[in-house]
Known about the structure:
Blueprint: H1 2-20, H2 43-62, H3 69-80, H4 86-92, H5 97-109, E1 113-117, E2 125-129, H6 131-152, H7 157-174
Antiparallel strand pairs: 1-2
Helix pairs in contact: 1-2, 1-7, 2-6, 3-5, 3-6, 4-5
Amino acid sequence: MISMLIICVLLTWVNRLHLMAPAAPTDGMNTPPATSIDIDEQPGHAIRRLHQISVGIFLQEVGELGVTPVQYAALQTVANQPGIDQRTLARAIALDASTTGGVVDRLETRGWLLRRTSASDRRSRELELTPAGLQALGQVVPAMLRAQQQILAPLSEDERRTFMRMLGRLVTENNALSRAPSDAALR
């Protein structure tokens, strides 16, 4: 959710830059010299910076609860889909399987998540929030919502809707290029 937000904010900025910037070379022969490129005019750099900012805001709001944005995404997804298997969770939150395993391990250690072997496929692990996990998620959600508001605060309501629509499009259209494509981006 936060990553999509970042891209939307940048889309407005990128559209402005696109009108000012020269067209990108297509033949490889007209590439500008490296010393003439301003990283602050590159959408990837701005997206990375906004991601840093959004994580900082999230962690500031969540505070002592000690939940990362990725842990929140996992908790929220499991709450929304009790019994989801670990591989499906990984695809839903756009993480590779080993990273998801580490996130699940940490949430299980905190007593917030249960992992059970699937009755229908012994190789699959189904996930469910514990009562403590549901309580923790309930405490995190207001902080997460404040973080989202703070990230979008510089934009008007119309700009927020436009930003989110454009961000969603960028995520969906570029999903296959990700190192860990999300099933959610395909919906």
